[in-house]
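Methods, example record. To illustrate the input and output format used throughout this study, we show the complete record for ABC transporter ATP-binding protein. The sequence lines were provided to the predictor; the line carrying structure tokens was produced by it.
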Amino acid sequence: MGKRFGAFQALDDVSISVPAGSFHALLGENGAGKSTLVKCLMGFYQPDAGEILLDGKQVSIATPREARALAIGMVYQHFTLVPSLTGAENLVMARADVPLVVDWARETKALDAFLDRMPFRVPLDVPLSSLAAGQKQKLEILKQLYLNQRFLILDEPTSVLTPDEASEILGLLRGMTDRGELTVLMITHKFREVTEFCDSVTVLRRGRKVGSGSVAELSTDAMAKMMIGETKVPARAARVDHGATPVAVDLIALYGDGDDGLPAVQELDLKVHEGEILGLAGVSGNGQVELLEILAGQRPLADGRIFVKGKPYTPKRAEMDVMKVFSLPEEPLKNATAPRMSVAENLAFRGFDKAPLAKARWFLSGKEIRAQAESLIARYNIRTRSPETPIEALSGGNVQRAVLAREISGDVAVLVVANPCFGLDFASVADIRGQLMALRNKGTAILLISEDLDEILELSDRIAVMSDGHITYLAPAAEADRTAIGHAMAGH
Ligand SMILES: Nc1ncnc2c1ncn2[C@@H]1O[C@H](COP(=O)(O)OP(=O)(O)OP(=O)(O)O)[C@@H](O)[C@H]1O
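The corresponding predicted structure is encoded as:
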């Protein structure tokens, strides 16, 4: 298969073969071409070279609808089901032949019979929004099985799950492939998932296939080497001991509402000191997103007070600018970029109205904006064809890197980040975590919101847990206890 975007060869003569009933991993660094490959298989893109053989027969897949008719389905990193509908409604509505008037009594019976044949169950009678992340992801998979998809493409399916949930779901899928009920092609950045659940692996680098083989015969090191070639993983800056430092951010009795109008952040108190990483753990959906949005000025504060370096702080652009408060939200393409604007323009959002990017505060200097972009692209290793490329054309990991570059490249007093390494390959994870540590060492106060407990344990000076909108646990990292954190996360 080959695929070009303009002059850029995103996939170059890549062949991959997935035997029926096997579990195949697709590995590669950010921008390697993994999504492009599966989008060609799903009919989102048309490959411009190569062919697809299904059960030995050549097929053409012009649209996702045609992929679906061939029993090829895909599960994404983020949830795609409708939160306000129940599981049953989501499943039935996803069908191509959904009738004008649904006979719910009949459908419920049919769904029950369907669930009886499945290796796992999910409550289908409650709105999706009331299910935990693991349950939602199971339902995404059940939906594909309900639609009779027998070749499942999973794009980093465990990013939003806890390690236990991830193991459970991959274990169940592995059981189905072992019984020959399913064939799986999974994009992942986690070597553990490859070694524990997959039979074979293909590795892409810069659009080309650089290796493949049976998992049993490949070491993690060999796979890592194939992914990044001779590139060196940067060594992490050591944690500098600052001793006691002043409070940089003081959050006092914060309240904020969620999208449903119900309180999402409730009586939240938290301090982050200069030169400290405060790790905020929690199961997703406990108010972390809303807290970040309040601090980033994207959601109104219902009540409470925020101080930055002792001064009252209102999260508006002008104050962020003066007090040097920066943030990286989840899903940065959606929440922190203008997708169709160029990489250079997106990188200029923080400073476009100031010298040197603007002259006399009114006239933007295209030359300066481009020069700044070129320097950030080089420094943060953002893989883009040019600074003028729309940011939505970058791979997921590179969008993440671009937004981080914009937020952390200047003088940063306070940084609020949510899942900064989401979807990044292992070398980029090391790089970004190193950058966060270096910022902390320079004195930045970092509030690190993450669903990855290992990330929190690795980076934080102190660890807090957020549950049901407020802080339920707080301890210095050296004294933090995994079990106690787990209990606090579960709301005990
Ligand atoms: N629609 C598009 N237009 C232009 N270029 C694109 C488009 N989609 C992808 N690309 C480019 O193709 C390359 C491969 O991107 P792809 O999304 O396939 O990478 P990936 O391996 O899935 O990365 P990640 O792990 O970050 O998701 C990237 O350099 C990207 O910028």
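Annotations derived from this record:
The two ends are 52 Å apart (CA to CA).
The chain has a mean pLDDT of 91.
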